[in-house]
Amino acid sequence: MNFSDIRRDFGNENHSEPVWPEEPFSIFSEWVQKAIQSNIPEANAMVLSTVGDDSKPSSRVVLLKGLDASEGFSFYTDYQSKKGRQLEMNPYASLLFFWNSLERQIRIEGRVVKQTRELSIAYFNERPVESQISAMVSNQSQPIKSLDELEKQRQEILKFPESIKCPERWGGYTLLPEKIEFWQGGRHRMHHRMEYILIDGNWQRHRLSP
To answer: 0.85 exceeded by the pTM?
Structure first.
């Protein structure tokens, strides 16, 4: 297949240069809120890329579940999943948000740390029951014969709801950002790009060529 003729010009959604603040979190929150208000499905979806000990990158979509300017970007998963194993070996990762209809993209890079057990349990207890059970029965990324075996386990747990609890292998991560880049589509491929780099505890801005 030839995809060379699939192209579009950007700059239709946002014609003006964004007003770039001195730190990245306020404009990140502004852009996420715009995506939510625009009814973009899964506006908090982000591509998480990790690298294991084989130096080969791996990417998947996860959901942003928390943001703290003094800490970072939080998500939850099975610690024994492929991404969990890779983060154990190499605790650095990148996040990518892309909202096509808004012609906006955000790239984030930094170190990833596990959340405290208390925070993971607190979030687990807020999840819908079916999501809790799924985390209990699914050893994420591990081979299975069929979904039937997981369904049997799910039905057993439903008989004893008092047994529902956060598995030890499941919990939260927080990416502590060291670099954040904002991209907004511009006419004639003259895109607006602003990079924030954390240096000695302070954010520095650099405009990048499109």
So the answer is: yes
